[in-house]
Amino acid sequence: MNIFITNDDGYLSEGILGLAEKLAEKHTVTVVAPHNPQSGAGHALTMHKPLRIKHFKDLSEKHKAKVFSCSGKPADCAKIGIEEVIQGKPDLVLSGINIGANLGTDVVYSGTVSGALEAAMMGYRAMAVSLDGNDLTYMDTAIRFISEFIEKYPISTMVKNYILNINIPALPFDELKGIKVASLGEVRYENDITRGVDPFGNEYFWIGGHKLLPEPGNKDVNYIKEGFVTVTPVSYMMGAEECIQLVEKKIERL
């Protein structure tokens, strides 16, 4: 396959370079990832300044894949990388492997998920892949899982407008309990805004609190804690179809 890879952790992340090197054993791989980490960038596009692409010959030779960086966001990387950098059309777009899970309502903020969604908007089959937690000890688990998964999964049957959002537990590969296809859960944080004063006496606010345990249920946020790989179809089509008739009835009464 002709595979395009991006992420939001940056082109030097162990997740993206390790995945690229592994997949390059069997496939043609092109990497276009942000020059600097862009976690939490969501689906932002850079509209008001030029973007620059840089090729890294040394990394390309080392990892047997074409490695580029982009001065923009993950969605920029996908758009420019697919339209201007990769030779030919990609058979599959992968965003990741992200260091840290992208589960539940956190997908709204995720640059990793948005990189895959941008590819889907362009008409390509795409997956977002994340490793739960920050322990890189288990990055090999994630790399092995996704490299085997794409060989077995019928990629040609992927539903238009949807990506697969895949999260992998931080466990040895042999301890993974299996795969659960699950809907998105809800992620809540405690003290997610910290207020402080800098050395110059100016007030500041810092976003990023402590993640609370999820409510019991059968969502992605639950299964990942039980040791299951979670796979969730996610679409960029944000209209709530199930609410249309309800809203129509209310509008008719106005």
For the record, give the distance between the C-alpha atoms at the N and C termini, rounded to a whole number: 54 Å
Strand order of the largest sheet: 3-4-2-1-5-6-7-13-8
> Overall mean pLDDT score?
95
Largest sheet properties:
9 strands, mixed
- Global morphology: globular
Query: So, the CATH homologous superfamily?
Result: Survival protein SurE-like phosphatase/nucleotidase
Unreliable spans are none
Helix content: 25-40%
Pairing-aware structural class of the strands and helices?
alpha/beta
The CATH topology assignment is Stationary-phase Survival Protein Sure Homolog, Chain: A
CATH architecture: 3-Layer(aba) Sandwich
Total domains, how many? 1
Q: Please indicate the percent range of residues in DSSP E strands (runs of 2 or more).
A: 25-35%
Number of helices: 7
Summarize this entry quickly:
The chain is an alpha/beta fold and 254 residues long.
Walkthrough of the structure:
The chain is an alpha/beta fold. The protein has one domain (about 1-185, about 215-250): Stationary-phase Survival Protein Sure Homolog, Chain: A. The chain has helices at about 15-25, 55-65, 75-85, 110-120, 140-150, 220-225, 240-250, and strands at about 1-5, 30-35, 55, 65-70, 90-100, 125-130, 160-170, 180, 190, 195, 205, 210, 230-235. A 9-stranded mixed sheet has the order 3-4-2-1-5-6-7-13-8. A two-stranded antiparallel sheet has the order 9-12. Strands 10-11 form a two-stranded antiparallel sheet. The chain is globular and about 60 Å long.
